[in-house]
Amino acid sequence: MSETVNLPALGESVTEGTVTRWLKAVGDEVAVDEPLVEVSTDKVDTEIPSPVAGVLEEILVEEDDTVEVGAPLATIGDGSGGGSADASEDDAAAEEPAVEEAQQDDAQQEPAGEPAPEERASTDQGSDGAPSAGGEASEVTLPALGESVTEGTVTRWLKSVGDEVEVDEPLLEVSTDKVDTEIPSPVAGTLLEIRAEEDDTVEVGAVLALVGSGSAGGGSAPSEGSSGQDEASAEEIEDKATEAEAPEETEEAAEAAGAEKSEKTPEASPSEEASRRESAERDPAQAESAEAPSATEPGQGYVTPLVRRLAHQNNVDLSTVRGTGVGGRIRKQDVLAAALASQAAAGGSEAPAEQASEAAAPSSAPAAASAPAASSSVDPSVRGEVEKAPRIRQVIAQRMRESLDLSTQLTQVHEVDVTRIVQLRKKAKASFQQQAGVNLTYLPFITKAVAEALKQHPKLNASFSEDNKEITYHASEDIAIAVDTEKGLLVPVIKDAGSLNLMGLAQKIADVAERTRTNKISPDELSGGTFSITNIGSVGALFDTPIINQPQVAILGTGAIVKRPMVVTDADGNDSIAIRHMMYLSLTYDHRLVDGADAGRFLTTLRQRLEGGEFANELGL
To answer: Is the model more confident about 223 or about 578?
Structure first.
């Protein structure tokens, strides 16, 4: 019996989602909890897993279709959902009534858009005794991806009709106005039908595809007049997967260039090939690890945005990495293992995870001087190309323009001496890592000081409604932390940050940042902020003019920490010149509610707290 995969509720205010990419194709086998499809909402992009194991028999929602929460996305069965006539094929040759009965069964199980029973009968008679597993296809539906997400757009199918999928194996990518995500297969089986094509927008709950066994729908043996989606046998499925490797490789290259829907890309230039060979030669550990029997050939595994970003951060050449995930997928662990092997070969000692964590904190000039040249978020090979803007980029563009149109924004900048915090961090870094389990960056110090300052200056932790002529002063400090991801800037929220100590903030910041980068953050965690912090110093910027995240009234930009000669006055009033660690704080505020004096008082409170550096007790010093 077939199981329907529906779009689950993904948040309180999310009512719909858009299918961005199918990770499985009709006919693919899927395992329980294997990703089926990626769905995008206005809060987050996520993968929808398969609730059962089986074969994807039918996709009910095409990519870019928007569906409501609860709508069926696909059907998953054991492969007999759309091809029960195959089971009675031998009897059909002997008895006509058996043929008619099989045709009636097909008519009951066939989804919309399938051939008529007469056509199916002729197709079945053209096959050669494909065995039947019984049961029906399972529907893969667009799940709820957040409280305010009602639809999603299918951006890319990761599987084709006839591909076998495992439970939780990604089927497709779905984009919303918040994030892009992968939708997993709820069952193991064969992707039988894709219901939502790429660029289709579907509502939450809409059917995206059908997954069943290989004998159903797209898994049955094709005849000359069949739709071309059916597979003759398991061997043909494997052949088809082999044939798809080359396009998949070019698709991976296009993704690395930022093109979500590119199907063909130019071959790598000789210089790129030479670079890859050089990387492989200087990293024998990677080549040795690539001999794992369960891994795919280097460069042929599916690569998620997180993996690409992680590879960029750790200077790992993905063309030399073999994926050990389901379907040859290159996982985060593969990249980290390759990075560790590369560092071991180069004599490096710092773990990649710590490098990534450090990038989340304001940078310092000496560290920046020794770091390699910053890489672009878009591959330089896209020069001269035109590509469709990802949905998340479209949403960011819309929200930023709306914010500037709605509020009167201006920015005030204060300079802060954070030398004491730099010294405290240096003393406590090792012990803090052991005790808290996360790296101690500068961001927890700043967030702690911001939460305390917001309690003293509630106007900065408020929202203003011109329509209702009301000012809402929020009861808690729900601070949003901007996180730079492969597909754009996202702002997960730390609820009630004012109630957390320094260690709690450090752990929470590291947690939400990691889950945001790995596309595992929930939609509800990306909304509800009352004040935002964006760490512009992570890329070396001294100051910026950040744009307010509506309906908030302020956002703080933290610049890079640099050492400069400064005039220092001692307790007796004597001046001297000393080398100090300095940082700029840029506060953009909504002048409809916050005056320049209000912003100045808030920044002064924040500056005094940071310059005082009274955090030793919380660090156990």
So the answer is: 578
Q: Which helix (H) or strand (E) holds 463?
A: strand 462-465
Closest CA relative to residue 314, chosen from 341, 348, 347, 352: 352
pLDDT at 488 over 80: yes
Where does the chain hold its CATH 3.30.559.10 domain(s)?
Answer: 397-619
Chain segment 496-544, per-residue pLDDT in tens: 999 999 999 999 999 999 999 988 888 889 999 999 999 999 889 999 9
Contacts of residue 289, defined as CB under 8 A and 6 or more positions apart, other chains included, come to: 322, 337, 338, 341
- Dihedral over Cα of 488, 489, 493, 499: its sign: positive
The pLDDT of residue 3 is 87
The DSSP call for residue 330 is B
Closest C-alpha to 25, from 156, 145, 153: 156
- Peptide bond between residue 305 and the one before it cis (omega within 30 degrees of 0): no
Amino acid at 447: T
Phi (first) and psi of residue 483, to 5 degrees: -125, 125
If you average pLDDT over every residue of the chain, what do you get?
A: 76
- What confidence category does residue 476 fall into, taking pLDDT thresholds of 50, 70 and 90? very high
Give catalytic residues, as residue numbers: 591, 595
DSSP per-residue letters across 401-447: HHHHHHS-EEEEEEEEE-HHHHHHHHHHHHHHHHHHSS---SHHHHH
Which residue do the tokens 């001294």 mark?
A: 542
Query: Considering only CA atoms, which of 64, 110, 82, 83 is closest in space to residue 206?
Result: 64
Taking the CA atoms of residue 478, residue 481, residue 485 and residue 490 in that order, the dihedral angle to the nearest 10 degrees is 40
So what's the pLDDT on residue 346? 62
Q: Tell which residue, 171, 170, 212, 207, has the closest CA to residue 61.
A: 207
Contact assessment for residue 540 and residue 553, using Cβ atoms and an 8 Å cutoff: no
Position 327 scores a pLDDT of 56
Q: Which CATH number fits domain 397-619: 3.30.559.10, 3.40.50.1950, 3.20.20.450, 3.30.428.10?
A: 3.30.559.10
Contact 104, 241 (CB under 8 A): no
- The residue length of the chain stands at 621
215/136 Cα distance (integer angstroms)? 10
Answer whether residue 262 shows pLDDT above 50: no
- Residue 470's DSSP bridge partners are 465
Neighbour-count burial for 28-47, b at 16+ CB within 10 Å, e otherwise: bbbbbbbbbbbbbbbbbbbb
Partners of 532 in the beta sheet?
480, 555
φ/ψ of residue 533, rounded to 5: -125, 130
Beta carbons of 146 and 41 less than 8 angstroms apart: yes
> What are the angstrom distances between the C-alpha of 335 and each of 175, 273, 339?
25, 20, 6
Distance CA 181, CA 45 (A): 4
Output the CA angle 77-82-85, nearest 5 degrees: 120
CB burial string 86-110: b at 16+ within 10 A, e below:
bbbbeebeeeeebbebbbebbeebb
Radius of gyration of the chain (CA): 28
Q: State the greatest distance between any 2 C-alpha atoms of the chain, in Å, as a whole number.
A: 109
Q: Are 185 and 30 in contact (CB under 8 A)?
A: yes
Asked whether the beta carbons of 18 and 41 are under 8 A apart, the reply is: yes
